[in-house]
Amino acid sequence: MNTELPKQYQPSEAQSRWLDYWKENGYFDANPNSEKKPHTIMIPLPNVTGALHMGHALNGTLQDLITRWRRMQGYEALWMPGTDHAGIATQAVVERRMSEEEGLTRHDIGREALVERIWKWKDSYEKRILEQLRQLGASCDWRRTRFTLDDTCSKAVRRTFFKFFKDGLIFRGKRLVNWDPHLQTAVANDEVFHEEVDGHFWTFTYPVVSEDGELTDDKLAFSTTRPETMIGDSAVCVHPTDERYEHLVGLRCRIPVTGRDIPIIADALLAKKELGTGCVKVTPAHDHNDYACGLRNDLEQINILNPDATINETGGEKYQGMDRYDCRTKIVADMETLGHFVEVEDRKIELAHSDRSKSPVEPYLSDQWFVKMGDHVDDKPGLAQSAMDAVDDRRVRFFPQRYQRTYLDWLGEKRDWCISRQLWWGHRIPVWYNDVETQQLDSDSFNGTVLTEDFKKKWDGKFVEYVETGDQGWSRVMVCVDAGSPECEADLQSAGFAQEEDVLDTWFSSALWPHATLGWPDRENNPPLAAGEGESSEKNEVLDCFYPGNVLITSRDIITLWVARMVLTGLYNMDDIPFSHVHVHPKILDGFGQTMSKSKGNGCDPQDLIDRYGTDAVRFSIASFAGETQDVKLPMGYECPHCQNVVPQALDGKGPMVKPATVKVALRGSSEKVLMPCPKCKKESQFSTPQYDLDSAQPAARMVSERFEYGRNFCNKLWNAARFAIMNLEGYTPGKIEESDLRLEDRWVLSRLSRVTEEVTTLLGRYQFDKATQAIRDFTWNEFCDWYLEMIKPRLKPGTEDEEQQTDERTGAQRVLVGVLDGLFRLLQPFTPFICEELWQKLNDIAPERGLFEPQQSAKSAMIALWPYDTDSPEESMLPPSWQDENLENRFRRLQDTVVAVRNIRAVYGIGPNVPVKLFMKCEPGVAEELQVCADQFENLAKTILEAAGAEIDRPSASASFNLKDADGFVPLEGLVDVSAELERQKKEADKLRGFIKGHSGKLKNEKFVQNAPEKVVAEVRETLAGLEKQLESVEAVIAQLGAG
RNA sequence: GGACGAUUAGCUCAGUUGGCUAGAGCGCCACGUUGACAUCGUGGAGGUCACUGGUUCAAGUCCAGUAUCGUCCA
Hints:
The chain is of the alpha+beta class. It is built from 31 helices and 38 strands.
């Protein structure tokens, strides 16, 4: 049998091989009819806006880690994959591309054609996203992949809306949005960027009106950058404690250009005494702060703009129809003419721009749909309260716990949820309406509705009607239709009803994700699987089995928008929480501490890293970054494809843009491709950036980051440890391991393995991935490789002199070695599944029967092997805690300390590793005995002969010394020791000891310490001090000898 | 403006309920390719724990304040 492995692990070939293997064996599939307990994780659905970035890689790695771990623990583990249609973002991307490439707007091509284009975009990016996840090793049940606009999810959306509507939780109202007058659409906050522009800061006055409505001589001065909004002013506001204006509050003042009188109010939140005149005008319909002030003070909201940002009828004859900027000029002139102009200064103004049209946006009041979040009239908890209760009574727990505050504080505001969006891409609001004259509606012939008796009878239960009485003699009859009744919709259509144009907020559908993906509201059928794979049944077993889920793993920025809403809709629709744990992981930042984003140009495709370092290395590194407090800073660079020189990232001088340090031009807004010049080889290349897609035919500078070498090096170390083991497994025979046959190092490594197994299990249960990774790395590298493998090397050597004994030793060592490796692969499988599978299979070839201590047939795949620690009954575990032996580990520590001390002496005196040295140990007889037992290891590990050990040992002349807690060591170095150097070394050691002794004895001299500190602590200090003093004595003795000699 | 977090070695980060001499990886220095691994081994250097006060026998850890940075929400 060829047992030789390549010297280095080659990830890419192994990755595709095992992905196929796992898929063929259906290891990712979750079966609702299983006997096992279910474990469900719902993926935080990526947007189909674009490819996955590092944040997704982190998020995916952690979910897969938990899923694989739970699967090994014996759960029926479902990790549900899918994507989000991401209304605004996706439509924006497609519209922008269309505009850039073809100069078309959505109005040019119409609703249907645009939606069709977006579906195409979705198809291509969904494919790419799912492929990226697969490449990461994500063990999702791919058959169940959902999309928020697919039939299954759409049904859930329709039913939920219908239920809300029926329960009176849906209403219409006004809301201030960022309006893009150029594209005539509302723009989301994260699609708005702020840019400084040259502007003006005008100061005007409004005359105060007396109580009987006459103009007085009093004036109020205020400043503004947007004078045209005067038309929509509903108040002038001062600070309540501002003495200058106290006497005016409650009076009214007049807007000179329109002649309208408005109240003078006091509001501590809006007005700042020390800023300008201390007085501000309030335009609730056109400013976000004023809007809030308007709500607080019950002010009128006057919309002054048409959708194209011209002034509407509120401008009167003078201003109606003017563009807002022309109107601004006109109003300034008019105010001057009327004598209310005070002054103007030039000023830089932070102006909000639409990321899509690059033009300024206007705060704009528009009709919107809302879901009521507050409590019911009878004080029964509303939607928000129900979700708060779930966290308050710990049905839902946050890890780390501090994030529950974000959740509770936000829900506590119980702000109604604005669910409508003026878009074409999304779930269209399932409401049809018909506007009727109120008078007519109330007449006998209509009796309050325009729906016929026939209609009502035919569609009883499938629709809900609601009449909204308007203020100008018109009423709106609104009919909400339940899921699955297209004919009812058609009937409405023919009765003159029109469907609402708006679509639902993306979060509306993603809020339903945990139950919608499992087929709710269908209680009779399992949700459909990928084409060709059906599961028929009488009831929806998938929903029964996998809801509620176990843990949601996500990043903190969507705790409110998404997590809170999933809990709330879960409780509303399912009467149960969607998951019991929420783990919030860190954010990935670039090397400058900025969040990675498209607009900053600092994103990184995980595929670059996977290609470069291997999936396991990326996963392992990522897991090691995922701690509880710190976000993850990743300094990145671009590797020149011609000479492999790495060009670091650099910040654009002006803004937050990031690009290779050698690129001199700004990337924002450039549609032209920019090339990266390499400072070393002077050749140019394209580079990986989210700004545009790479030309795959040309060489490209891909992203690299030194921080992933951590994982790569670890994988290589693991590979080589296994390689060494496999090379030495020739002639392996399975068999029971007798405890009496175990050597010191065997017992030690089993004790350590048991300990790290327990530790990793506990840490994963707390989602402390960084610590779990470190524990397992330290064991693998610093204990298993550095000590255990080194120590068993002599036993593994094929026999020469005493054949029989050598063979026995080799067999024993092989059995323990194989058992330890087996356990190690199990622990590592969730972290680094590919390399573990590769090695597991190699081990299966050579040692299919293995185990500690009874050999057993090994599992077919590492993925389905049993996790070696059973949380419920630890002693029943494969690697039980009873193997942990603290005394033994301490004894082993002395061996390690001795070896390190001798190596240190070698290094200090320049004695090569091949030159044998002798060692004398002065210690108690018990210690001496223990040292004698492992004498052969001194020879093995440090090429050192333990010449003698015991209490009677005297320091040989011309020797280097070291001291441990319970032993002094001497290494005779005839002719090699430089007496003065050794004296120096020992004096330094003595000084160090004296320092520690001073600290400790100081404590003990302090009566308060002795009195107040726990006895245990005092005793420990005493003990340590005694040890230190003994050590110092030894060192001083050596110094005396050296000085005398 | 509010909430939360961070500040520890040149860099990136650990450091449990306060308690033995504050740790790791990378980088750095010296030495080393005798059969697992140079993506390596051995040894080493490197820290006024942001600052100021306080509580305590004892503070990197708890409290208050200051400074700087970050995130989320307004």
